[in-house]
Specification:
The complex is a heterodimer. By secondary structure, chain A is an alpha/beta fold. Chain A has eleven helices and twelve strands. Chain A folds into two domains: 243 residues, P-loop containing nucleotide triphosphate hydrolases (Rossmann fold, 3-Layer(aba) Sandwich); 65 residues, no CATH class. In chain A, helix 4 crosses helix 6. The two termini of chain B are 31 Å apart. Classes of the chains: A alpha/beta, B mainly alpha. Chain A: Its main location: membrane.
Chain lengths: 323, 292
């Protein structure tokens, strides 16, 4: 069974120019104990998707349609109190910038003890748990470190503390919003390794958001490629990265500096811009920038099976099969 | 093994005190403030004479061994009246600041964190209060209910609330967008918990500094209102009434006005030093990096 199953989710923001349709008919799932990566460029709706899952949306956001099923419950139908009970226990989250995610005037120990407010434990027991979690994420000398303030830790350590706090209650789903983007490359590798180990140990599902293809390839079991508020391709990391079925995924992979073998002065880019999400063009969302655009692209393509469990929203797949 | 390199755990208050006394400015402020507090609390034992006992034959004397700061027009010992006057000053300042901080925190945090309409309402309330000049407002209230210490306390407190409230509101507004607040929400913290555990400690530091710097203003206001005859009634000694007497008798003796002014100056200096030092100390990041 899937821990997280999103079906036909549409989210819009009301803006002075009209409704900005940030997510349109998004469907994806996180199977139990698997790491699913979401990849896409800035503005593709990754953050909107997370905020809709955890129900901490901007005041001007509105869910148009769809379901967010977490262990079978539709989160969009839960009350605010029910959601709060889930956050930090069943679902938790790690943020992008570790320099900003801790309260600057409270010691790390205080903060880690405070988030256990739901547990019926003594202060000493809570402290011990916090200490164990710090040790688990690889903070040396955790007992003394609990008395320190966030600014006394490096960025990589702070991110590990954030992960420790998120995993404290052994959640069923961890959402990681670009947790390594603000860190340098060596730390990135370390955090990824640590996350993988912890996921193995706790067995939670992980939804990992990144625009770094290398990280996704390294860490994730499955990948969801998003473009301009729509899911364009899903499948196992292996399939999608080796045989991308959607022209956007292909273009994205070609632009990844890690994939470029020939020495070049100019990094490749995908020509064109993301479409205006207030005045959406009809048909395929990627048509404007697609190298293989043809007559059929005037109609919106449905997700089609491109391989074993691999799906993409492109007319070429169905055309290839009928041909 | 790292025990030596890490500071041993101290309570938050202990940490602040430790760094406060290491700052010369903070130490000086702390000593002055403690001296004023002590003299006010211990007034009955420190003061050499009864502050309201008349001794007309010895009136309007200059400083002497018997009367350290001389005597006033009724022969009362000025030094004793200064010490007892400190009681009145603190009796006004402490509840005033305490009340203003309490209501300022409450209203400011609600305005900063709550819905827009409530914010507008509270800001309107603040602006309304601020539009009255304190002394004028005090005069009006005193004219209505008659002069008393409680009236003075109430008036100064009400007119101080917006000062604190606005600072708290602005801090809260900038903090509520901070990522750590979102992070806490994502870990299941409720609104009251976010306000009490995460916003409050971030707001309290700057507020403590503001309060320390505000105490001299309040003491001065009390002195001013007493000077205008709106505060404490004679024969109760207060620094303001000392100044008032000294002003009237300045042709006969300068000692009264000097004796009334010194404690005011000391209070201002003491609390300002303390406030300045506190500002550097309450922020854990700046702590111990002052280098002064």
């Amino acid at each position: 069974m899937a821990v997280l199953d999103i079906r036909g989710l549409s989210v819009g923001y009301s803006t002075p120019r009209g409704e900005l349709r940030a997510l349109r008919d998004v469907s994806m799932m996180v199977p139990e104990g698997k790491i699913v990566g979401i990849v896409g460029e800035s503005g593709c709706g990754k953050s909107t998707l997370i905020s809709a899952i955890i129900r901490l949306m901007a005041p001007n956001a509105r869910v148009g349609a769809g379901e967010v099923r977490f262990q079978g419950r539709d989160l969009l139908a839960e009350t605010e109190a029910q959601m709060r009970a889930l956050r930090g226990t069943q679902i938790s989250m790690v943020f992008q910038d570790p320099m900003q995610t801790h309260n600057p005037v409270l010691t790390v120990g205080r903060q880690m003890m405070d988030i256990q407010y739901r547990e019926r434990l003594s202060r000493a027991e809570k402290r011990q748990r916090a200490e164990r979690m710090l040790a688990l994420v690889g903070i040396p000398d955790p007992e003394a470190r609990l008395n320190q303030y966030p600014f006394e830790f490096s960025g990589g350590m702070r991110q590990r503390i954030a992960i420790a706090m998120a995993l404290m209650a052994k959640p069923a789903l961890l959402i990681a919003d670009e947790p390594t983007t603000a860190l340098d490359a060596t730390l990135e590798v370390e955090i990824i390794k640590r996350l993988r180990e912890l996921q193995d140990e706790i067995g939670c599902g992980v939804l990992f958001i990144s625009h770094h293809l290398g990280v996704i390839a390294e860490l994730c079991d499955e990948v969801v490629v998003m473009y301009a508020g729509e899911v364009v391709e899903t499948g196992s990391v292996r399939d999608v990265f080796h045989a991308p079925a959607h022209p956007y995924t292909r273009a994205l992979l070609e632009c990844d500096p890690g994939h470029i073998k020939v020495k070049t002065r100019v990094l490749p880019t995908i020509p064109g811009n993301i479409p205006d999400l207030v005045n959406l063009p009809g048909g395929c969302i990627f048509a404007d920038r697609c190298e293989r655009r043809h007559a059929a692209c005037a109609a919106r393509p449905a997700m089609a099976l491109a391989g074993d469990g691999q799906r993409a929203a492109c007319h070429l797949i169905t055309e290839r099969e009928t041909a | 093994m790292t025990d030596a390199s890490l500071p041993k755990p101290r309570s938050e208050l202990g940490e602040i005190l430790y760094h406060l006394v290491r700052d010369p400015l903070g130490l000086a402020g702390l000593i002055i403030v403690l001296a004023i507090l002590a003299s006010a609390v211990l007034a009955p034992w420190i003061a050499p004479y009864d502050p309201i006992a008349l001794n007309v034959p010895d009136r309007l004397q200059g400083p002497s061994a018997a009367h350290l700061m001389g005597t006033d027009q009724l022969g009362r010992d000025t030094f004793s009246r200064v010490i007892w006057g400190g009681r009145v000053a603190l009796q006004v300042a402490l509840p005033t600041i305490g009340g203003a901080i309490f209501f300022g925190l409450l209203l400011g945090m609600i305005a900063g964190y709550g819905p827009r309409w409530l914010d507008n309402l509270i800001v309107l309330l603040f602006d309304t209060i601020r539009s009255f000049p304190t002394v004028m407002f005090a005069l009006a209230v005193v004219a209505l209910v008659g002069p008393s210490l409680n009236t003075v306390i109430l008036v100064i407190m009400v007119t101080s609330i917006p000062t604190y409230g606005r600072v708290v509101r602005t801090l809260t507004q900038s903090l509520k967008e901070a990522e750590f607040i979102t992070a806490e929400k994502s870990l299941g913290a409720s609104t009251p918990r976010i306000m009490a555990v995460h916003l409050l400690p971030n707001v309290l530091g700057p507020l403590a500094v503001l309060a320390a710097m505000d105490i001299p203003t309040v003491v001065g206001l009390e002195a001013g209102l007493s000077f205008l005859g709106m505060g404490v009634k004679p024969p109760t000694p207060s620094w303001g009434s000392l100044l008032n007497d000294g002003y009237n008798l300045i042709r006969n003796t300068p000692w009264l006005i000097i004796a009334g002014g010194i404690p005011l100056i000391l209070t201002t200096v003491g609390f300002t030093f303390l406030g300045e030092a506190l500002r550097d100390v309450v922020d854990p990041k700046l702590r111990g990096k002052g280098g002064k």
